Amino acid sequence: xxxxxxxxxxxxxxxxxxxxxxxxxxxxxxxxxxxxxxxxxxxxxxxxxxxxxxxxxxxxxxxxxxxxxxxxxxxxxxxxxxxxxxxxxxxxxxxxxxxxxxxxxxxxxxxxxxxxxxxxxxxxxxxxxxxxxxxxxxxxxxxxxx
Length: 146
Fold this sequence. Notes:
two-stranded parallel ribbon; mainly alpha; about 5% strand; 2 domains
């Protein structure tokens, strides 16, 4: 990737890219390592601006982005610094871990209650893991659940 961008004139070249799942490393490489003028396009807002003639063809979409950049019509995204991006990634990672762990623990409790103890807490009376449901679980006095 570096060889292609080495041939560009850093002062005159402007690059536009849509915000996607992997935008940050590419944006960082081009703007900080290669010192190119990179614009990060907000895909939703840019689509609204260019909605008259958007096609699904990738080449046409690239041309459309280039034309919008040339005309000054790109809806830009805010690009945080690396420290903020790292903190955001840490929060996303923690949220994913907590969600998976919570699901795993709830499934384990359900298996203990329903399979191992052959107890069924009425779903009509209690929704799973509400305050009332948790109180009912505590009455089972099982160390794995408590």
